[in-house]
């Protein structure tokens, strides 16, 4: 019994950065989600994964302690269709990793034979995970962004902001203006260099000190900032800052003025990647702490509120299966992307298949015959 080990370099050779193909794979994945050809954890088959946190204090020697952005997560899933395999993405996260020159999160992905449980592949998954998140952003743009979009705004020009922008640019190549809001000069500089290297129109590239100014003329808005601890620290898109017909793709916590969620005169529609993940909010975002903060709501929180109130929330898996769907040019689409483990399985499988065909990676032996 053997499996393929794929380093990050191997994953790149295996096509992990092929964004158009990734978006198509995400579309196929959501079709399978709609048809029920998948399994996740939890009683309603919709768990994001299992997260292990540490205590705030402990008398036990060497026990890790809780800190912002510090945890371990396992995300298991089965996906059917042509993939027909089981996968588990695992990662540890620690904001202090940057001090050692490491990414905040370090991710690995394992694929298993769904019949025997035998390992098929074990692979580096940092790029894979960012790609599938970007791929879903591209899928939202495919269905909800103006075909003639000219301006995209990125709130949070980090890793996910870069990959989501790549996906939106793949789907809407007519974009000529890139607006950016980011707090860190280093992340803005890396983002700027990335856009230049990708050949994006730098004469239309602008950095803003105000979120509202960055968003005001945008056809597509991507929110991808890191998640703060407190609700009041989430980026806020204020009143009248989103133009009619815009597509807002939310990959991270962002607040919006309640006019977008509560005022029925506003032509706003919320879209979920999987509605069941937002039932009862399930602790997705922090809660507001002051009366002023309660005048705002996160997009994912608003999805939960609309579902609880019986209001119509569009579901991406249903949209990709509906050949008759047509976006309304005057409606603001607020799209919540929470991340579903089957996305990792499908994109990992695609990379694994190419690696197998082209002899990429290293084959490792588990046993010739088990000595159990």
| Average pLDDT, all residues | 95
Which value, in Å, is the CA radius of gyration? 21 Å
Broad structural category:
alpha/beta
Provide the CATH architecture of the largest domain: 3-Layer(aba) Sandwich
Keywords:
ornithine cyclodeaminase, domain 1; Rossmann fold; Ornithine cyclodeaminase/mu-crystallin; eight-stranded parallel beta sheet; globular; 372 residues; ODC_N; ODC_Mu_crystall; alpha/beta; eight-stranded mixed beta sheet; NAD(P)-bd_dom_sf
How is this structure best described in words?
The structure is a single chain. This protein has two domains: about 1-130 and about 340-365, ornithine cyclodeaminase, domain 1; about 130-340, NAD(P)-binding Rossmann-like Domain (Rossmann fold, 3-Layer(aba) Sandwich). The chain is of the alpha/beta class and about 375 residues long. α2 (about 20-35) crosses α10 and α3 (about 125-145) crosses α10 (about 340-355). About 30% of the residues lie in helices and about 25% in strands. The chain is built from ten helices and 19 strands.
